[in-house]
Amino acid sequence: MSGKVHIMDHPLVAHKLTILRDKNTSVKDFRELVSEIGMLITYEATRDLPLTTKTVETPICTAEEPTLAGKKIAVVPILRAGLGLVDGVLRMVPSARVGHIGMYRDEETLEPHLYFCKMPKDIAEREVLIVDPMLATGGSASAAITEMKRMGCTNIKLMVLVAVPEGIQRVQTLHPDVDIYAGAVDSHLNERGYIVPGLGDAGDRIFGTK
Questions:
Q1: Chain centroid offset of residue 166 CA
Q2: How far is it, in rounded angstroms, from Cα 154 to Cα 3?
Q3: Deepest of 28, 35, 75, 173, by most Cβ within 10 A of its Cβ?
Q4: Residue 1: is its pLDDT beyond 60?
């Protein structure tokens, strides 16, 4: 099975991303927009959830209507910036459990290192949605996916706001079975590993730490 790349071709996502990119957008608005775009991408990332039916009494009659087939989901933010997307996912899938995975990037090598991992006990049985605002070098995302597979997870998706071809290629090379959902694909990475045009440091802009 080869993972696909799903780019959001939607006016609302494009519009909200443009406001997100603006360096003058406030922390409050930035945080709200990250959550809103996360909600819209979740809509697309859950398109293939299995359905069953149940009997409901409408005001008119009894009917057999579609309902989710109880597939269990876990949303796993990559700390810390990934936390900004969790609320949007949970608004769409309130029953999802939340795991956390902490990565820090070596400033010299740009390689990721795991420093924190806390998951629901039944994580291997769940469909896992790893969330992070940026897919830049692809190092953190690939390492997070590797860690989830090590725990027995077999159904993993990656959801990001903005990606670049370099990051997509790295994830697809290392994890060809993982689908990627992105709000947009930007041009390239600069010499410091930042996405161009991008939206700056998402963690700093979500939490107001700069």
A1: 17
A2: 13
A3: 75
A4: no
User: For residue 50, what are its two tokens?
Assistant: 């299995």
- Find all residues with CB under 8 Å of 203, minimum gap 6, and list them: 80, 81, 133, 209
- CB-based burial label for 112 (10 Å; 0-12, 13-18, 19+): buried
Contact 11, 186 (CB under 8 A): no
Active-site residue list: 105, 109, 201, 204
Q: Which amino acid is at 180?
A: I
pLDDT band at 32 (very low <50, low <70, confident <90, very high): very high
- C-alpha to C-alpha distance for 58 and 61, rounded to whole angstroms: 5
Instruction: Look over the chain and give the mean of its residue pLDDT values, rounded to a whole number.
Output: 92
pLDDT confidence of 49, banded at 50, 70, 90? confident
CB 161 within 8 A of CB 189: no
Residue 57: CB partners within 8 Å, gap ≥ 6? none
pTM of the model: 0.91
